Amino acid sequence: MNDSGAMISMIERAARDPSVDLDKMERLFAMKERMEAAGPAAVSFRFF
């Protein structure tokens, strides 16, 4: 599973959990957006 798929899975699990508040969900979505905006350059940078 790639980073994007893992992030989506985490968001799905959080969305199903009634104890997760809206603020936390918003932060997860913001993190996913930052990961997508960084693109492949950020992913390849981690491996150097």
Q: Could you explain the architecture of this structure?
A:
The protein has 48 residues and is mostly helical. It has one domain (3-45). 79% of the residues lie in helices and 0% in strands. The chain contains 2 helices and no strands. It has helices at residues 3-16, 22-45.
Determine Rg (CA atoms, Å): 12 Å
What helical percentage do the residues reach? Answer: over 70%
**Topology as H/E string?**
HH
Number of domains: 1
Residue fraction in strands: under 5%
Number of strands: 0
Sequence stretches where pLDDT stays below 50 over 5 or more residues: none
What's the end-to-end separation, in Å? 20 Å
The number of helices is 2
Identify the overall geometry: flat
Average predicted local confidence, pLDDT: 81
Biggest sheet statistics? none
SSE class: mainly alpha
Key terms:
mainly alpha, 2 helices
Write the layout of secondary structure elements.
Blueprint: H1 3-16, H2 22-45
Give a short summary of the structure.
With 48 residues, this protein is mainly alpha-helical. The protein has one domain (3-45). Helices cover 79% and strands 0% of the residues.
